[in-house]
Amino acid sequence: MSKSTLERPSKLLRHVLLGGVLWLGSGLAWWKWTEQDQFEEAFVGQVWALQQGGPAAVVLSESKRAVLWGKLSSPLPAERWEAARELARWRDKISVPALRRALRDDDGTIRTCQIAIALGRIGDPSAIPALAQAIEHPSNLDLRICAAHALGEIGDSSVAPILVRRANDASLREDDQGSAILALGEIGAADALPILHAIAEDAQRWTAIRDLARSAIQQTEIVQADNPIPLLLEQIRRHRGWIADEWTYRKLHEYWNAEAAHGLNAILREHPEPNQGLLIRCGALLTHHRAWEPEILQALDAPSAPKAARWLAAAVHFHRLHDGWLVAGQP
Asked: Are 162 and 192 spatial neighbours (Cβ–Cβ below 8 Å)?
């Protein structure tokens, strides 16, 4: 056998190995790039949501609104779901009547549940009667749960008696009881505290239901405090109970002041390697309220900082260089 014949397999192997290494390297580069894209998309989405919930909200065009309203009555579930999700993303209060009408049409769990979620996200109290009716639906469990969550997100204490009754009704499924308790925690109505304490102390209740009641009590105590800001900041640090991070940051935004701004900057200073969720939510609030402390941004942008911290610093710098980057309505 000739020398060239012996060398041929080894050369082929080297080419295969080299190609594999190049493919792997390009694959890793692609993965890292898309990971950063996903981070930036989540951050921009948070900033956009804060903007759309305030006076600087971008108004949805009449033509696009008409298209989405048409899709709400589409025979295709995916189109109905996407229309509800898009109207919620825009926080389009003009669309609340159209969503209420669509909620009455009980053609499928996914459709009605997503519409209830959209009504909660928009946050208009005019949706409360439709959601209060939906929470009593006799057969659609998903709709009942989504309607309860939507009522909690709207946050109007006038619905507390309905939720208290459902939370305390042992004949209902645990899912119904639990969703009512979660909604009471989001609202933080003081009138609900006696029932929540009774549920938390009832040894006959399912353990998860008792835990939810304890968390709802904590949320109510935060909302009813003379100064909720230190308690909200402590919740971000400690993650006590079953309190959703989304609720904590939403309330911090609602009660925003200089103490909240300083506290969020301090939290980022305290965490040398903060997780991406913390970076995105804290960063969005500080960006929206223009409350960054310069030394915190410098620390996030340092070469030795974790990659997600550097991604956040880059996104914030871009926001400052292109002030109003979300105004075009295309986050």
From this structure: no
